Amino acid sequence: MNPQERAMEALTRLSPIPPKYNPTKQDLPDGMYLARSRKIRNQIARQNNGEITFDPSMTCKVSLAKCLKFFTDPNRTSNHMAKRCSTGYPAPSLDAKN
Question: Residue 24 contacts by C-beta under 8 Å, 6 or more apart in sequence?
Answer without folding.
Answer: 11, 14
